[in-house]
Design a protein that fits this description.
Elements: E1 4-7, H1 17-30, H2 37-44, H3 49-60, H4 68-83, H5 90-99, E2 104-108, H6 112-122, E3 132-134, H7 146-155, E4 162-166, H8 169-178, E5 181-185, H9 191-197, E6 201-203, H10 209-212
Parallel strand pairs: 1-2, 1-4, 2-3, 4-5, 5-6
Length: 216
């Protein structure tokens, strides 16, 4: 029986992944490693900026030469002030979970500041209260299970009793490693990619999630 639902933020709660990956690809290209939007999605989506930067610098064989995480956060927040919206159907899903008294939380690779901004900007913060957890709170980010284990511990629910909604293969792998049931939201990452990462269910819209949770 499902006792809690854990949500990734970017691409699951807020429609930000195309913005984020477009900007990240531009910055990595500026650093000297030509990168397309599609390559950014495949290599970095779902991971923390710091861990992604480490991969970039390993491939370059040198530091990027500028504060890429700070520049990324500045540019992303500027774009999101103008363009950010909640993912279609997620507000209704959160309302159903609230009505059913099912605990929810956020487990995201974003910084605490980035997550708070995105939830506030889209009016979703009130659904989660203090239960917002960042990869910057644990030693290892996605695809390791640390963030999801922290989230389950903080909301007081065993990981096996949690459903995770994720849109990246890194997040899916982390959720499965933590012992959670994972719903893969195939938006930018393909259904096949999420299924190969271990997703138990695949959806292409949030309206498909309630029946999987026994709601609506």
């Amino acid at each position: 029986m499902i006792k809690a639902v854990v949500f990734d933020c970017d691409g699951v709660l807020v429609d930000s992944e195309r913005i984020n990956n477009t900007l990240f690809a531009e910055l990595v290209t500026r650093a000297g490693l030509p990168t397309t939007l599609e390559q950014s999605i495949a290599r970095y989506m779902g991971r923390s900026t710091v861990e992604s930067l480490a991969d970039v610098e390993r491939e370059l064989g040198r530091p990027v030469g500028f504060d890429l995480p700070a520049e990324y956060e500045r540019l992303a927040l500027a774009r999101q002030r103008e363009e950010l919206a909640a993912v279609d159907g997620v507000r209704e899903l959160l309302g159903l979970l609230r009505d059913a008294a099912v605990p929810v939380c956020v487990a995201s690779s974003g910084t605490p500041h980035e997550i708070a901004f995105r939830l506030d900007r889209t009016g979703l913060a009130g659904y989660f209260g203090p239960h917002v957890y960042s990869a910057y709170m644990v030693a290892r980010g996605k695809p390791e299970p640390d963030l999801f284990l922290l989230a389950a511990e903080r909301i007081g629910v065993h990981p096996a009793d949690c459903v995770l909604v994720e849109d990246s293969p890194y997040g899916v792998r982390g959720g499965k490693a933590a012992g959670m049931t994972v719903i893969g939201h195939a938006a930018l990452a393909s259904a096949d990619t999420l299924r190969a990462a271990g997703a138990d269910h695949i959806v292409t819209a949030m309206t498909q999630v309630p029946p999987l949770l026994g709601l609506g």
